[in-house]
UniProtKB/TrEMBL annotation:
Organism of origin: Sorangium atrum
Name this protein carries in UniProt: DUF6368 family protein
Top-rank lineage group of the source organism: Bacteria
Pfam families assigned: DUF6368
InterPro entries, per the entry: DUF6368
Length: 195
């Protein structure tokens, strides 16, 4: 992973974003994170194809760090910690999804400008569409049921929440969306990923 002191040398936010825009970057401040839950484990070949796809669209790739439109991102393949998938299963998400997540791919934007939120959403949409996954927004969006109002054992499925086309799934842990929802949310006036 790129260390903060290396970021400016490698084209990090300090060098690439107007630092007068306080939303865009402050030293030590990262942007939004989102994941794609997958119905099957990523094979070595699929991981290679994912990395190859990122290499084709990125300005630069250095291990798990890559730059899209000169904006830094981090890729993580697999759960961040061993219990991550079991926590999703315990939150009963499979009951509303109709399948059980087997793997996860995460993206982290290292800046917090509007463009970082849009690029993150596009990465997740493209991967979810290619792999048949669902997007984990890693928290509560500006629309949909509030997470603190849900019972732990009762996930919900909401079609076209707030006029956003698609399906939003919610557990006490997070909001999740299908590809249609994420694509529609990206075009919504209140669009933001979760930071």
């Amino acid at each position: 992973m790129i260390q903060p002191e290396e970021a400016s040398k490698l084209g990090g936010c300090e060098a690439l974003v107007d630092c007068h825009d306080s939303k865009a970057y402050a030293p030590g401040m990262a942007g939004p994170v989102a994941s794609v839950l997958l119905p099957a484990k990523m094979s070595v070949e699929r991981v290679a194809a994912l990395r190859s796809g990122i290499s084709r669209i990125a300005n630069d790739v250095r291990g798990d760090d890559f730059w899209l439109d000169q904006r830094p991102f981090i890729l993580t393949v697999g759960p961040e910690y061993p219990e991550a998938i079991s926590e999703i299963l315990e939150a009963c998400l499979p009951e509303v999804l109709g399948w059980s997540p087997e793997d996860v791919v995460s993206f982290a934007a290292m800046c917090n400008d509007d463009e970082d939120h849009r690029l993150l959403a596009r990465l997740c949409i493209d991967l979810a569409e290619a792999e048949g996954g669902v997007i984990d927004f890693c928290g509560q969006l500006a629309i949909g049921p509030p997470l603190d109002g849900l019972r732990d054992d009762k996930p919900v499925r909401v079609e076209n929440p707030g006029g956003v086309t698609g399906v939003l799934f919610a557990t006490m842990r997070s909001h999740y969306g299908d590809v249609a929802f994420a694509r529609s949310w990206l075009g919504h006036a209140s669009f933001r990923m979760v930071k």
